[in-house]
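Is this the right way to post structure tokens for a design question? Let me know if I should format differently. Anyway, here goes:
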């Protein structure tokens, strides 16, 4: 069950079947939804609006949320492994310790998001906007960050082994004790090398 407060609906609770029925009927705005520990593997909700929703510890592997808006959402310890999160707006969202391994976050907006200790192994972040995001201690092993905007992002102690940083913007990024491949280190500009 989940607490719900959205456009045209009074505060109350809805279960997963009601949520699916409402989505099928054309409702897309589930902002401020309280769906902690929800069990929704493989759910297909493209273009859903979940602004400031609480999805703490939600189980959403292989979910399709492409083009959705999750601005300010709480996704602490949420499982979004192998999820389709293309073009999703996750600005200022809390993804501490989130499981995002092999998730597709192509062109996603993650500005000022908190991704501390997140598992992003093998994830696709091509063209993602990660400006000022906190990725400290995040595991980005094998992640594709080509063309990503990491300006002023905090990558303190992040693991970037085998990550693809081709064309990534790193101006002002904090790379203190980040783990990078030696070939990547060689390609970094001198100012960045001193921070690693």
């Amino acid at each position: 069950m989940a607490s719900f407060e959205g456009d045209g609906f009074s505060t109350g609770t809805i279960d997963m079947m009601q949520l699916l029925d409402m989505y099928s009927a054309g409702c897309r705005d589930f902002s401020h939804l309280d769906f902690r520990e929800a069990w929704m593997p493989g759910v297909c909700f493209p273009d859903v609006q979940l602004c400031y929703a609480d999805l703490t510890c939600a189980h959403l592997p292989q979910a399709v949320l492409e083009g959705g808006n999750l601005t300010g959402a709480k996704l602490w310890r949420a499982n979004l492994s192998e999820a389709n999160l293309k073009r999703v707006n996750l600005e200022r969202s809390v993804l501490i310790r989130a499981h995002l391994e092999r998730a597709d976050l192509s062109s996603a907006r993650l500005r000022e998001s908190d991704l501390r200790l997140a598992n992003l192994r093998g994830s696709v972040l091509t063209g993602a906007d990660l400006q000022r995001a906190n990725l400290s201690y995040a595991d980005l092993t094998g992640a594709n960050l080509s063309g990503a905007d990491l300006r002023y992002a905090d990558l303190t102690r992040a693991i970037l082994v085998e990550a693809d940083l081709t064309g990534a913007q790193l101006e002002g990024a904090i790379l203190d004790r980040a783990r990078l491949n030696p070939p990547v280190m060689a390609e970094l500009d001198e100012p960045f090398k001193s921070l690693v």
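Format looks fine. Someone answered above. Worth noting: Confidence is low (pLDDT under 50) at residues 3-12. Residues 122 and 143 are 4 Å apart (CA to CA).
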